[in-house]
Amino acid sequence: MYMTISAFFRGLGPVLGFILSSACLAFYEDPGCPPEYDSEDPRWIGAWWIGFIVLAGFQLVFTAPLLLFPKQIRKSPDATTTFHESGIFAAMFRLFRNPIYMFHLFSQIFKWFGILGYFNYLPKYVQEQFRVSASSAALYGGSLPIALSLLAALFGGVTIRYWKPDTRLLTLLMFLLEIATVVLILALGLFKCEAPDYTVGANEAMSRCVDPNDKTFSLAIYQGATALFGSSKKLDSFYADNEDGDGNIVENPKYTPKNGSIKLSGDHIEKLAKFNSS
Q1: CA 22 to CA 144: how far, in whole Å?
Q2: Nearest to 220 by CA among 236, 249, 200
Q3: Do 126 and 233 have their domain in common?
Q4: How many CB atoms lie within 10 A of CB 275?
Q5: Do 139 and 249 reside in the same domain of the chain?
Q6: Scanning 18, 126, 185, 246, which has its CA 20 to 30 A from the CA of 275?
Q7: What does the pLDDT read at residue 176?
Q8: Which segments cross the bilayer (predicted)?
Q9: Residue 249 in 3-state DSSP?
Q10: First to last CA, the chain
């Protein structure tokens, strides 16, 4: 029971950490100057730095009392310590010769190698696949899975403490739970979601090397410029390709870029920045 409670409270740290990150990412990086778009926009950058300030404050509060301890702790005259290295090695060899323990140990190692790789990228996957904000992804993909795992571990510890099954029955239950875990993980492959809306295809920037002196930008840079300046309408109303093949830039408020390339020089980008701020 002690091991169960200890593991439960150790796992509360990551849960509270993901909840804190979810709360911080709900605010903009500069809370005093929030943008026009919301937190579900890909351009949104959450206030990640707030979490470090909060954690630093907690560390200061809980570590400051350590200064009150004396430099040396008084030793009890009756305390005796016996240590035999041969006993430790003998106990280790007994564990290595236990097939049930060794197979269970290797099963846990291989299982967690796979699950941890999946879990580390779960919040980002939830954000990209389901089009949610980084704050919601940290909450759903980080804190909830860990919290459910902690509840399962707590339930198992309480059950073993009060039910007290014998060794064979406990081993059988562990085997059945491992089989259920494998089946549920394989069942995740049956779920299908729509592919994310990514633009696929070659463009001018991908097919050639851009001369830094030329500073010509393709449609990909056009999309980046729209993200930088906040609105594609402002960009379209200022400069657009007239599709004559010469790469000339003309003003055309009604133009909507298609698969062709639109070229903006460095001077145009600088003028566009002034136009956008006006």
Answers
A1: 12
A2: 200
A3: no
A4: 15
A5: no
A6: 246
A7: 92
A8: 7-28, 48-69, 100-119, 139-160, 172-191
A9: strand
A10: 67
Residue 262 gets the label, from left (phi > 0), alpha (psi -120 to 50) or beta, of beta
State the residue range of the domain holding 273: 211-277
Nearest by Cα to 42 from 226, 165, 202, 234:
226
Q: Are residues 16 and 149 both part of a single domain?
A: yes
Indicate whether 270 and 151 sit together in one domain.
no
Tokens of 2: 């002690």
- CB of 7 within 8 A of CB of 121? no
> What pLDDT tens digit does each residue of the chain (278 aa) get?
778 888 888 888 889 999 999 999 999 998 888 888 888 887 888 999 999 999 999 999 999 988 888 888 777 666 555 666 667 888 888 889 998 889 888 888 888 887 888 888 888 888 888 888 888 888 888 888 888 888 988 898 888 888 888 888 888 888 898 899 889 888 877 877 666 555 555 444 444 444 444 434 444 444 455 554 444 444 454 444 433 444 444 444 343 444 344 444 445 555 545 544 55
User: Is residue 196 domain-resident?
Assistant: no
Residue 48 in domain: yes
226 and 155 co-located in one domain: no
Q: Angle at which helices 2-25 and 144-163 pack, to 10 degrees?
A: 170
User: Are residues 138 and 270 part of one domain?
Assistant: no
Reduced 3-state DSSP string for 161-221: HHHCCCHHHHHHHHHHHHHHHHHHHHHHHHCCCCCCCCCCCCCHHHHCCCCCCCCCCCHHH
How many folded domains does the chain comprise? Answer: 2
Give me the pLDDT at residue 277, please.
Answer: 52
Asked if residue 26 and residue 127 are part of one domain, the reply reads: yes
- The answer as to whether 194 is a domain residue is no
**238, 226, 229, 233: which is closest to 277 by C-alpha?**
229
In a domain, 176, yes or no: no
